[in-house]
Each structure stands twice: as C-alpha cells, then as structure tokens.
Amino acid sequence: GRMGELIWQIPLTVIAVLIASLVECFLVLPHHMRHALVSQAKDHWYDWPSRQVNRGFRWVRERAFRPMMVWVVRLRYPVLAGVVVLLASQTALLIRGDVPWRFFAAPEQGTVTGNFAMLPGATRDDTLAMMREVQRTADRLGAEMTTFDGRPGVAHVLAEIGGGTGRGLSGV
Fold first, then answer.
1. What is the distance between the alpha carbons of residues 12 and 74, in angstroms, rounded to a whole number?
2. Coil, strand, or helix at residue 59?
3. Diameter of the chain measured on Cα atoms
4. Which one of 52, 62, 154, 165 is CB 3.0 to 4.6 Å from 113, fit for a cystine?
5. Cβ–Cβ under 8 Å, residues 61 and 70
6. Among 139, 141, 134, CA closest to 160
7. 94-103 pLDDT per residue, tens
C-alpha cells in the first residue's frame, strides 16, 4: 500500500548498516585500536582539549552522578513509584488526546475532495447553484478551522463542472 511504498527502503538500509558495522567491528576497529594503544602512552599538545573534557567528565561522574546513584539505589522504591506515576501521567495525556502521536507524519498536506451528481433533467444553472453551495460550505468550514498560528484551515478550493476526483459516484 501507500505506507509500504514510503518505507520499503528502511529494511534495506538497516541491513546495509549492519553489514558495514560487522566489517568495521571485526576488521577495521582492531587495527585502529592497536595503533591507538601504542600512541596513547605519549602526551601530545593537541590532546589538551581532550584531557580537559575527560577531567571534567571524571569530576561530574565522581561528584554528581555517583552520589545521585547512591541515593537512587537507597530510595529505589520511591524512585520506582515516581517513574510509574510519570509514565502513567504521560500515557493519560496520550490517551486523552492532549499529545497527538503518529508513527509517521503525513508526507503531504491533507486534502478533501467532494463530488456531486445531479439528477437527470437538471440544468446547468442547477449544477452551478449546487457548486456555489459546496463553495459556500467550504468557505464556512475554512473560517471555522483557522489554525493556531492564524493561517486559514482551507488553503484553496478548486471547482470543476463535468469532472471528478477519486472514485466515481455509483449510478453516474
């Protein structure tokens, strides 16, 4: 279907990435690590930024993260209860509809099409009157559906006599 046409490349991409990752892991990485371990013993001037980042990382790990984890382990049941409450509140927002969620966003803007068929014996003026009624309804709906940023809910309306879109009407 339409979704399959959009996402059929994803499994092929994942397969290619996994194969490349295996090649990197078993062939390229060991060679690089051998050279990295040999040159690691030397201090180079260009390693100064890396040493500073590592020093800061060690400080955060020892002074902030490790004490926090000690408290998380000591208070594991209240922490677990808090996580469950947080998850339940987010699930409630999703179920209530406050947080819209789609697995894939629509690739194009939504369109609405409408067809009408006139009874045998209807004149061109009858058809034009019906088309004007559809136009009036679309204009009213567009005014009601103004988006949150002030843009109109209906971008444009196209009318055509003698044509149609989508599936044909039965009996026509």
1. 46
2. helix
3. 95
4. 165
5. no
6. 134
7. 888 888 776 6
